[in-house]
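A.,

Following up on our hallway conversation. Structure tokens first:
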């Protein structure tokens, strides 16, 4: 695994062709600090990605949700197998949590390790106004998982990330929850979250988001609740001009 070709070979067997191994020194200071807090001694983050077919977003809501959950779950399992393999080879390795723990900062929610930032640093794309990762090759549909490890990786050569949006603001104008602004997405306004967290529950949930230990205890049961969830909206994905980028990412 300690060579790029070994890693590519392992991920090919997992049917993952979109990935980036990002060295700790390639990260912006806040992301570097998050990664080292997550795993002291970390030297790299390997981001794994898959891009669902655009047709998934035209399915009935239940089917769309099941398809997206399946992709995310498969990626999470691949990340776990990669972490196990790295540990077998003597490295420290941890997967980035699938659902929780997450954290809240100034009203916005992100993972303990921000995979979209790291994927962008690793050349997989750049973040749009919708906060989605936008890849010139794979569009705006990439689903991500990640493994933080003590394995060193060679520095990548990545083109300067360009602003993918320019004067476009379709996602902002189309969002039925008015959840997107210059600071990103307000999760408590997004229809997919609002359905599960009505107004009176927002304060208790914010309280929970500040309790990492409690979230860690809840993490094993969180995927169970996904079985009962249904996506209400994916408009910020489908209105984006990058939605039609068709190259298969699997
Ligand atoms: S999923 Fe829908 S409600 Fe949520 S941020 Fe996107 S457009 Fe807005
Ligand atoms: S819809 Fe437009 S503004 Fe929103 S992420 Fe896509 S390109 Fe950027």
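Then the amino acids I'd put at each of the 250 positions:
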């Amino acid at each position: 695994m300690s060579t790029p070709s070994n890693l590519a070979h392992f991920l090919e067997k997992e049917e993952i062709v979109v990935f980036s191994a990002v060295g700790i020194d390639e990260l912006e200071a806040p992301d570097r600090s998050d990664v080292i807090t997550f795993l002291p001694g970390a030297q790299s983050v390997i981001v794994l990605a898959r891009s669902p077919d655009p047709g998934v977003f035209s399915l009935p809501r239940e089917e769309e949700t099941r398809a997206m959950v399946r992709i995310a779950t498969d990626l999470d399992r691949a990340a776990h197998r990669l972490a196990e393999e790295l540990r077998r080879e003597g490295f420290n390795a941890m997967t980035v949590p699938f659902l929780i723990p997450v954290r809240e900062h100034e009203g916005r929610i992100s993972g303990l390790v921000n995979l979209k930032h790291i994927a962008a640093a690793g050349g997989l794309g750049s973040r749009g106004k919708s906060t989605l990762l936008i890849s010139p090759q794979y569009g705006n549909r990439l689903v991500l998982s990640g493994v933080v490890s003590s394995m060193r990786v060679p520095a990548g050569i990545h083109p300067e990330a360009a602003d993918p949006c320019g004067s476009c603001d379709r996602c902002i104008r189309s969002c039925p929850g008015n959840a997107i602004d210059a600071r990103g997405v307000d999760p408590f306004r997004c229809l997919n979250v609002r359905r599960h967290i009505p107004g009176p529950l927002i304060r208790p949930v914010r309280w929970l988001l500040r309790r990492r230990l409690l979230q860690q205890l809840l993490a094993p049961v969180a995927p169970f609740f996904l079985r009962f969830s249904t996506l209400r909206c994916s408009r910020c994905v489908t209105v984006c001009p990058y939605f039609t980028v068709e190259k298969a990412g699997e």
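The chain is about 35% helix and 15% strand. Curious whether your intuition agrees with the design.

B.
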